[in-house]
Amino acid sequence: MAEDGAPGEQDTAAEDGALREAVAAEHAAVWGYGVVGAALPPADRGAAVEAENAHRDVRDRLGALLDERDLDPVAAEAAYELPFPVLSPVDAAALAAVLEAGVSAAWVAVLDDAVQGPTRALAVRELGAAEVRAVRWRAAAGQTPATTPFPGLPAD
Fold first, then answer.
1. What is the pLDDT of residue 156?
2. Domains of the chain
3. Burial of 45 per CB tally in 10 Å (0-12, 13-18, 19+)
């Protein structure tokens, strides 16, 4: 951090805050994919497990990054409020799409506040990965279009 304002140093406070919020979004996705998997038939749970593991890995890498910066990551909540009841495989796919949208929004916020190149690269990579997963889940939920022109940004 550029506490003394020395030339060449960058203030990463906003970037750090956005990374902490990305950790919170990743926690929610990890938890939410447990719900998604529970509502899918056993033969269809592989994609949910893969997505949960991907979010768990990103969350853990973010925790390590924040630790390197002497910052505490956001703690996971005991439970998260679902946006709607998940009573079928279609509901599960729709929830997965919502989870990925939440993660995408967090990564867009990181991009907005990033001052370091590696942080921007991380955000672009994870935003792309979230959208790839979201397209699969939107298609499985019967949502059209399955793609979004600007992932992570409000539709309005």
1. 67
2. 13-140 (1.20.1260.10)
3. middle
